[in-house]
Amino acid sequence: MDGYKTAKIATWIGLAVNLALGVGKITVGIVAQSEALRADGVHSLSDCGTSLVVIIGLIIASRPADKSHPYGHGRAEAITGKIVAIVLIVVAVALAYNSICGMFVHHRDYVPGPAAIWAVIASIIIKEGMFFYKSRVAKATGSTAVEADAWHHRSDSFSSIAVLVGLLLVAILGKEWVIFDHIAAVVVAVIIFFVGVKLLLKTWNELMDGAAPADTIEQVREIAAGIDGVLEVEQVRARKSGIDLYVDIHIEVDPHLTVKDGHEIARAVKWKIIKSMAAAKGVLVHVEPFGEKTDTNVI
What we know:
Alpha-Beta Plaits
């Protein structure tokens, strides 16, 4: 199955789960009078919005290259991941503000009902399942946006754990300690904030043409070195564009070969990389004479 299609299916599933969890947690939070659970429900609903953004980004990124975009539209996927990260940060700040106000301004004397505890436990189990599912999809497709969405699920799971701790403390210690419910909501916000910052930095690196992981570079080097006629692999550069990988590589060949023979070796290197690495969509091979030092800063 096409990588973009797989990523979109995973995101649609996540959207449906987030919608059900968000509505459920907010409803139980209102009935059971839990500020933290309502905050956690808002977090889940925010996942729905970001999932829609991810889907739109994947649709745009999957469009083929055209005259105006000869390298394709893959950057839309990274831009989508950045939007998800920014939304996470904004949601975190808003939740923190509301929770702090609840502690010092709108404090109420109540103990959340037991239904809130069971709702949070169910949320943790479901969210952890979605995190592991989407993480596998992200790893298989190389999608930064799906990875961001997976961590959005994980942040929801972590925040639910904080909510659970707060609710249990209130249930055990009594209504005099109901402030723990609000403190848990603040912890939720802090967790969301730091996850958002981490994802923002990751997507920023991709948009700035950051290098592909070292193991990817090494894989490209090994593939090229295994082609007959390649005497040395001088330099490898690779960058991501969405889930696609673009590679620039310098190879050294016998300086006495004809231009045609050198071209055939370069062609073999290019297609071997494309066939061996599903993400590789563009490979530029530069041929140089073996044993001669050249300026490797120029492709």
